[in-house]
Design brief:
Blueprint: E1 52-56, H1 61-72, E2 76-81, H2 86-98, E3 103-107, H3 113-127, E4 132-135, H4 151-172, E5 181-185, H5 198-219, E6 224-230, H6 264-274, E7 285-288
Parallel strand pairs: 1-2, 1-4, 2-3, 4-5, 5-6, 6-7
The chain binds nicotinamide-adenine-dinucleotide and magnesium ion (MG).
Nicotinamide-adenine-dinucleotide is lined by residues 25, 57, 59-63, 80-82, 85, 109-111, 136-140, 160, 185, 187, 230, 232-233, 235-238.
């Protein structure tokens, strides 16, 4: 039987999105349409059998798609999220458990260094090991005018998007063994920053430098570090201030593929970077952008 072939411009939602707004952090279960995170559409092939993974931002969007794909590839998965997002997180746990894998739910705020340490220890202890960090959590709040960009927002965005990576990785190095992998999440915004995302785009550039440098530091320990740089993807981040409300209907339309991506279209890259298939790949950035350049 041959695999069905799709036109990428029409494979997923490609017409206008309905205008919608939630306060941050938004819930995926209240979005219209609900993003496709591979709950039904992702097919695993045991490429991560027996691995123990920690995914931040694993309740929704891109992190949820990675967590679900990892479980379908045979891994046990701990996910971190904010306590407000408990419902989305419980839905992810159900999917992970439905394919016979262990799900560990660890809510908490990554902008708190002491929580980052606790998160890693709990993930390790409850999973019975730790082979991978998939660092996907992020904050994005569009502000049109730098004069209106508050110091509070700048600091919070850097704490969540950048500082937490240092804190989580530092704690995890107590556990990660040769063959382990770390995957960070940047953005096309690191390469083509929008005028209204100055703080966010700066953090996404910092994540690339962090990932490349860390890859060099950890190579001799046998730990690989790579980064995924998504383009516009239909997730809760965008409808709770990541984009101005009026930009939502046309979100993703300006890409060469003329539509927003769905989270499930990213998870194959996360699986690849976590698996043995990518054993000669480190310090790399993988763009999944609908056609935007990442260099
Ligand atoms: P999302 O809203 O589904 O995921 C972001 C997650 O970050 C939330 O679910 C939340 O659990 C977590 N988070 C936010 N603040 C936190 C905090 N203080 N402590 C703990 N967790 C916190 O949206 P997404 O688009 O899937 O975002 C995932 C990543 O992808 C982000 O790093 C984002 O920058 C990146 N990204 C997204 C797009 C896009 O278009 N959606 C494009 C490029 C990059
Ligand atoms: Mg969420």
């Amino acid at each position: 039987m041959s695999e069905q072939i799709y036109n990428p411009t029409t494979k997923y939602h490609h017409t206008k999105f309905q205008k919608q707004k939630q306060t941050a952090p938004a819930l995926q279960c209240d979005m219209k349409p609900i993003p496709d995170c591979g709950e039904k559409s992702y097919q695993g092939h045991q490429r991560l059998a027996g691995r123990k993974m920690l995914v931040t931002g694993g309740d929704s969007g891109i992190g949820r798609a990675a967590a679900i794909a990892y479980a379908k590839e045979g891994a046990d998965v701990a996910i971190n999220y904010l306590s407000f997002e408990q419902k989305d997180a419980e839905d992810v746990a159900k999917v992970i458990e439905s394919v016979g894998r262990k799900a560990v739910l660890i809510p908490g705020d990554l902008s708190d260094e002491s929580f980052c340490k606790k998160l890693v220890k709990q993930a390790h202890d409850k999973l019975g090991g730790l082979d991978n960090l998939t660092l996907v959590a992020g904050k994005q709040t569009a502000v049109e005018d730098i004069a209106k960009l508050t110091t509070e927002q700048i600091v919070k965005t850097f704490e969540i998007n950048v500082f937490s990576l240092f804190w989580v990785v530092k704690a995890a190095l107590n556990y990660l063994k040769p063959g382990s992998t770390i995957i960070t999440t940047s953005s096309v915004q690191a390469f083509q920053p929008s005028g209204n995302l100055l703080d966010y785009a700066s953090t996404k550039s910092a994540i690339i430098a962090f990932s490349r440098g860390l890859a060099k530091q950890l190579a001799s320990k046998g730990i690989r570090v790579n980064c995924v740089a998504p383009g516009p993807v239909w997730t809760p981040l965008q409808i709770c201030g990541g984009q101005p409300s009026e930009a939502i209907p046309e979100f993703g339309k300006q890409t060469p593929l003329q539509r927003a991506g769905q989270p499930v279209e990213l998870c194959g890259v996360y699986v690849h970077l976590a698996s043995e298939e990518s054993s000669y790949t480190t310090a790399e950035t993988y763009g999944v952008t609908g056609g935007y350049h990442t260099n």
